[in-house]
Amino acid sequence: MSKVSNRTKIATALVGALALASSNLVVANPLADVQKADSKIHAESAASQQKVDKYFDQAQDMLFEYGSVADERESLKSYNDYVAGLVADQQNSMDAIQTDINGVDRLRQGVVPLMFKMVEALEQFVQLDLPFNTEVRKERVENLKNILNTAEVTLAEKYRLILDAYSIEREYGNFVAVHTGKLNLDGKEVLVDFFNLGRVALYAQSLDQKTAWMYDAEAKTWNKLEDSYLRDITKGIRIARKQGALDLFALPIPAAETAQ
Hints:
The protein has four helices and five strands; from the N terminus they run αααβββββα. The protein is of the alpha+beta class. α1 packs across α2, α1 crosses α3 (155-172) and α2 (134-148) runs antiparallel to α3 (155-172).
């Protein structure tokens, strides 16, 4: 083969090689674009997934927060219902107290006149009763009269003191007592032992035990006792003073219809 032919073949081969290379370059460019697009899609997909994950986490947080708020709301509702019940009960108590206060005011209007009547009745009773512990009993009544007109003492305390005075007077009817004092007889004072059997009878005996008297509540005078009663009244006085053993003794007493 000639040199021209060989050169022609070499040239043809080079042209073919270049054509083939050119063809490969043309094919390689679309593949690169696809790879780039795929990478971009993966990147965008990853970014989208991150956003989805982020929104999901936010949604979960909001759901948890909603649950907490809902629980707190139920707790507050229960507490508010409880407080409302307490307030209603307190209001009922206040209404009841106010009703009691109104009742106390009405009661006060009735009690005050009653207390004055009780003290007045007690004063009359002491005046009409047997004259024992007279000064103490009259002083007690005067104190009650002064207390009734004192604003410093409560109404309840005033009423209590009046009841105490009545209780003391009641006890006087159940005791036997002796005390030494002066007996006024026709303008002359005689030192005697006063001996009272409750409210049944009141006696007096001279300290020399030679004379004795019995009080007449109806006539408000002292009547001399017969000498036959001297021994018995002496015995009664000793028993009252716990200076003698318990024993029977006989003394006259006022008739039932005249006893005070």
